[in-house]
Amino acid sequence: MTRIFNFSAGPATLPEQVIEQIADELLEYKQSGVSIMEMGHRRPEYLEVVTHAERDLRDLLAVPDNYKVLFLPGGARVQFAMLPMNLFGKSAKADYVLTGFWGETAYHEAQKYGDIAIAASSKQDDYLTIPSRESWQIRDDAAYLHYTDNETLTGIEFHDIPSSVPVPLVTDMTSSLLTKPMDISQFGVVYAGAQKNAGIAGLGIVIIREDLLEQALPIVPSVYDYKFEAEQQSLYSTPPTFAWYVSGLVFAWLKANGGIEGFYQRNCQRSQALYDIIDASDFYLNTIPKSVRSRANVTFQFKQENLEALF
Ligand code: PMP
Questions:
Q1: For 97-137, how does the pLDDT look when each residue is reduced to its tens digit (9 = 90+)?
Q2: Residue 170: which H helix or E strand, with range?
Q3: Do 192 and 204 contact (CB within 8 A), yes or no?
């Protein structure tokens, strides 16, 4: 068997030890007589899996006690719609900072549910920069301000949490969750699809401050009602049981192998090594300013003259 170096953004590489553990446990999960794939989601063995998964994620990110952690079906695009549905009960307004394709997509989805404004955008720079915090226009009555922590396609990352945001801060960390320490207390909501750094496809992770659980629109589907799902321990509908189990294994592996600080150091070294090669190359190119280059995922283009020579 040859496992290749898989640089795909997502679904992305899983730790080999996690895959081996899955293989070991697949036919029968811990003398339960069934595979984890066949196990009822309310069985004590499964409840133990999800309890450990939440505890480990909370430990890894130091999630404060006044935050709920939800594990919901589907990926990040589901949350593009569920955020406004869950947060627009008091004010159906939200402001979005656009730094690339994913922020723009989240912004368009939210427009179906209320009055959405662009607080700042780097579109005029082909999304190759991050607008300075001073330029952001945030409305006092916005239900939240949304930004994309790491724009996966271009490889642009916020290296600091935006400061002095007067409304709840919401961020899409689909490609950067668990890659660096984050002060969760600075946020109203942090969300991510699991398939990049936190497991496999099919699961969305939402970390939400408790006081924001009171402002859902009546139309929000029960299965995505953040307050209701918090009360139900994310078990109202049959959850993506296998995906949640895999996330639990990934969290345990991260904890056992250096925790978030350790992985952050490795991500810095690994991304720098790749950027050094790209910057020294005659063939590859990265035009993102160094101050906002992603440490979570490295992108590159081909130099125009090389492309012309090829075709
Ligand atoms: N946000 C970001 C930053 C992403 O990278 C992606 C997927 N590449 C998405 C959202 C969409 O995620 P999903 O496919 O889970 O809906």
A1: 999 999 999 999 999 999 999 999 999 999 999 999 999 99
A2: strand 169-172
A3: yes
Cβ neighbour number for residue 285 with a 10 Å cutoff: 14
Ligand 1 within 6 A of CB of 82: no
Residue 193 Cβ < 6 Å to ligand 1: yes
Structure confidence by residue, pLDDT tens digits, 32-64: 999 999 999 999 999 999 999 999 999 999 999
Question: Ligand 1 in contact with 294 (CB < 6 A)?
Answer: no
| Chain Cα centroid distance, residue 79 | 10
List CB contacts of 160: < 8 A, sequence separation 6 or more: none
Task: Outline where 111-181 has alpha helix (H).
Answer: none
Asked whether residue 1 carries a pLDDT value surpassing 90, the answer given is no
Ligand 1 centroid–CA 135 distance in Å is: 26
SS3 call for 188: coil
- Ligand 1 center–CA 61 separation, angstroms: 20
- Partners of 71 in the beta sheet? 205
Residue identifier of the C-alpha nearest atom 5 of ligand 1: 152
Ligand 1 near 75 CB (within 6 A): yes
Cα dihedral across residues 266, 270, 273, 276: positive or negative: negative
Cα–Cα dist 36/59, whole Å = 24
φ, ψ for residue 269 (rounded to 5)? -65, -45
What are the tens digits of pLDDT across the range 136-155? 999 999 999 999 999 999 99
Please say if 196 is a catalytic residue: yes
Specify the range with the lowest mean pLDDT, choosing from 191-205, 237-251, 290-304.
290-304
Give the C-alpha distances (Å, rounded to integers) separating 271 from 61, 133, 284, 290, 295.
Answer: 21, 25, 15, 11, 5
Which pair of tokens denotes residue 61? 């990110």
Testing ligand 1's pocket by substitution, the residue of 72, 77, 146, 153 carrying the most ligand atoms inside 8 A of its CB is 77
pTM of the model: 0.97
